[in-house]
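subagent[fold] <- orchestrator: predict structure for attached chain, return tokens only, no commentary.
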Amino acid sequence: MKKTFSLSHPKLSYQRVIENAKNEVKKYIKAEKAHTLPEGADFWGFDCKFGQTPKDAIRIHEGDINANISSAESQHWKSFYLEVVPVAKTRAKRSE
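subagent[fold] -> orchestrator:
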């Protein structure tokens, strides 16, 4: 998913548009995790970028998506760019 979310809507409140964006991202991640993993992979990881525009986007952790959207809300951004790319990953073994 590479998408610029517009945070203005003629009929919906700003808060409702923010919640819709968070829900859309959550549903996308859930759907991607449901796909079958390639041979040798343990789990689906996600490479994420967030910013006001695609040029300004910085890498973030998957768990920080909602916090970044809330930060954009508190700063009253008109839109934000979010990139979530699924990547098959393997777990690293712990050293004993």
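orchestrator: received. Logging for downstream: The beta strands are 2-6, 43-51, 58-60, 79-89. The two ends are 38 Å apart (CA to CA).
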